[in-house]
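Could someone model 5-amino-5-deoxy-1-O-phosphono-D-mannitol with this protein?
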Amino acid sequence: MCGIVGYQGREGACDILIDALRRLEYRGYDSAGIAVLQGGSVKIARKQGKVSDLWNMISSENFAGSMGLAHTRWATHGVPSERNAHPHKVGDVTVVHNGIIENYLELKESLKQDGRTFVSDTDTEVIPHLIVDYLDKGSGFEEAVRQALKRLKGSYAIGVMKDGSETMIAAKKESPLLVGVGDGELMIASDAPAIINRTNRFIFLEDNDVVTMTNGELKITDFDGTEVDREVKTVQWTGAMAEKGGYRHFMLKEIFEQPRALSETLIGRIREEEGEVVFDDLDLPDVSKIRKIWMVACGTSYHACLIARHMFEANLRVPVETDIASEFRYRDPILDRDDLVILVSQSGETADTIAAMKEARKKGLYTLAICNVLGSTLSRESQGVVYTHAGPEIGVASTKAFTTQITVFFMLMLYLGRLKGLLDSNDIRRHLAELKKLPRNITAILDSSAVIEEIARANMHYRHFLFLGRGINFPTVLEGALKLKEISYIHAEAYAAGEMKHGPIALIDENMPVVVVSPKDQTYKKTCSNIEEVVTRRGRVFLFTDTFDHDMASKSDAVFVIPETIYELQPILSIVPLQLMAYYMANHLGTDVDQPRNLAKSVTVE
Ligand code: M6R
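Reply:
Sure, complex below.
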């Protein structure tokens, strides 16, 4: 996830762009760069590190000019370095890009055969090369960009400038981009917070929009050059509200971001037609020798491990041991050098998880991190890393990190299944088709958030909740209960439904509502019996399932129906209403949702 910004107006572009970049830095910060049109040619500067490092480098230089582009990068292809930083300039053409060009290797190969030389490891560099190619063949600037865009597969938001031209071109497909319409100035940005201090009038671009800006004149067309009409919307956001995308809290924003976060997790990693999962730069040791897989983490990330254990054991038939990082590091587990240790962390800075990784490395095991934050300690010090690409998670309660971690685990399961010869391309194709439906299905749940809010509002006076689930949804309810307790301070306990009779049933009465997650899988009937037992004891039931069942509905206080999916992916859908329920209860109770008492976003001490 990178951030891009562009300016065309009457003032000096450089200061405006640097200021906007600072506000976009939350989207990624391993390197930054700027391009300004100066005396007919585009001057660029790039620097590894933060925006402040770029500013320190250029503040004494002459970067005068009233049109420019800038970029803050979070590496996906190519290590963080000045060479791989944006903007990328090829001949007369300068480009900034956010997203992933899936067919870049193929394009790069064919451009190389035409004699073009590449200087970076990025996927982005193919874009200016393609544009230059079309310019050389006689196309005008706008047409050359359009032709190049038609060759790209994947996701992108781009900004383009050309030496000797007063025109800036921008385009988007599956990556965010908006146009800010200011007083005598036009801007483009990945996100409103970047430019909310200059304008509150935005055009929220749609996929396949191409924006052409020349001397303050704006034109929006589709890929074929036909003009399209886009409304300029005035928003009443303050800077802080804009950062939250208009949501009341970061947590709610992050819950609603899950469809996009999941899509970004998948980008560049799944090849549905070929029935393949690809993890660039992942160099696992001989998987046929793996005797056991360890999954180690804390909190929500640990719950993702518990879910992964179900999918790995069922599909890979390899024993999986899950452990809480603070336990793993002290209990001297029996490790074999050929075991694989997977460490999961949103922040990559959780002290216990890092210590567990070091412990495993000390014993000579291969460590693989699943992590969200690029360049974090865990991601740097583990031998392998797969990023979740969820984008920054700011709310202390983890939401999109969880669903993207499960998504990565699922892809990793398919990847290992292929390497071990247990899954063929047809199996993988089938699984990928289900995976690809998730963003749409999460959106369908989010569209019913008002129903969940109503349930939350009507029941937030209870001081205790019991959560029940079975199989792969036992960890889902552990996570649902964690969400509720950490932000609303309501006591919530989760049990495997089969355990209810072994103790917790003693708690059931009219003051102990029970949240049940039970899709219609092989354990549904058993859970129905649990519901009967709760109701007999005057307990109140809130059922989250994937098929409406009149009998169970008549026994429950509320039933929420989740879209159907395969067993392995159910938690990704069933956790969303639980996240929402926790959020709405906490919000209506008036707690500090984003920074609940006594908690920190990353626990960097033992
Ligand atoms: O950054 P990590 O994923 O390593 O953090 C682990 C836990 O501290 C974290 O998941 C915590 O439990 C959250 N507050 C849960 O919402």
